[in-house]
Amino acid sequence: MENLLASKRWPGVTAADVGRRAGTSSAVVSYVMNEGPRPVAAETRERVLRVARELGYRPHRLASSLRSGRSGFIGLVVPNTDNPYFSALARSIERAADGAGLLTFIANASLSDARERASVNAFLEARVDGLIVIDVGEATKSGSFDTAPVPLIWVHHRPDGAPGPLISFDSYSAGRQATEHLLEHGHRRVDCLTGPVDAGPVTDRLRGWRDALTEAGIRPDPSWVLRSGYDRESAQRTVRAALTAQNIEALVAFTDTHALGAVRGAADLNRHMPDDLALTTCDGTADTEYSVPSLTAVTKPIGALAKHVIAALQADPVAGVGDEVIGPLTLERRQSCGCT
């Protein structure tokens, strides 16, 4: 089979070729294609655009970036695009970047330290103007970023010693609010469903869960911490096994992926929510509203965070920008906890 990538090449048409055909200079062609910096008469502009279409000419953006030192591209590393929360966050950041005239390259790290490093290196080789790394705090090593020659923004978690500001939500508050709401329903045992290790925002949510129980006079048992991978299937198996072995009545899922897996795990055993198992979750993506039952969730102002991220990326490098915690977080009461 023919290798299409090897067989296709951009046509070798230059600005000078367009200028000759249009009866003008390559500089004027550049002004038209880049919308400046000098004005061009309307008739000349239309003629240049027509000839460019006929010849299949497009400006060489990377070549222009070498001359100007600016590419107009930014790199965004996402931990796992399968996760609905990270996908929603990436879309919001991309929209905010688009509003600022920036084009976003997105890489999926697949929860792999090696892939995250490779993505960052690829972005730097492509001469991006800035880097945004959404990090979950499990394996990232700060050494990958010590020599980044462009602005670097961390979202959710920043490795110890890594450069650049951190923009995040209050993960402690998310875990605490989700737990307190189940306590308000009268539950005295509230389990939590979390990842395989305590790291990054998950650690903060675990502290919020534990403090809410302790202040309610309840001593959380270690067996109440249910651990699974960061995927629906693993969460489904974990919850199904826990419901079979233990008398679980209420559950806080630390991510929406965990929550959706928990819904399926309970359904496998014909356990109904909220009568047999009350559930809250800590991400609050659109998926929680359309689940059956709909999931009570701590929702976050993702759009506001995305705007802060892009503003921080464009901030004066001399003045700098500090860490920010974006709020407020809001509890959306739905069916899974028993509110409706």
Highlighted features:
single chain, 340 residues, alpha/beta, 434 Repressor (Amino-terminal Domain), Rossmann fold, 3 domains, six-stranded parallel β-sheet, elongated
Topology of this protein?
Layout: H1 4-7, H2 15-22, H3 26-33, H4 42-55, H5 61-68, E1 73-78, H6 84-99, E2 103-108, H7 113-125, E3 131-134, E4 152-155, E5 166-169, H8 171-184, E6 191-194, H9 201-215, E7 225-227, H10 232-245, E8 250-253, H11 256-268, E9 278-281, H12 286-290, E10 296-299, H13 302-313, E11 324-326, E12 330-332
Parallel strand pairs: 1-2, 1-3, 3-4, 4-5, 5-11, 6-7, 6-8, 8-9, 9-10
Antiparallel strand pairs: 10-12
Give a description of the structure:
- This protein is α/β, with parallel strands linked by helices.
- It has three domains: 50 residues, lambda repressor-like DNA-binding domains (434 Repressor (Amino-terminal Domain), Orthogonal Bundle); 125 residues, Response regulator (Rossmann fold, 3-Layer(aba) Sandwich); 130 residues, Rossmann fold (3-Layer(aba) Sandwich).
- Helix content is 42%, strand content 14%.
- It contains 13 helices and twelve strands.
- A six-stranded parallel β-sheet has the order 2-1-3-4-5-11, with helices on both faces. It has a six-stranded mixed β-sheet with strand order 7-6-8-9-10-12, sandwiched between helices.
- The longest helix has 16 residues.
- The chain is elongated and about 80 Å long.
- 42% of the residues are buried.
- About 2% of the residues have low confidence.
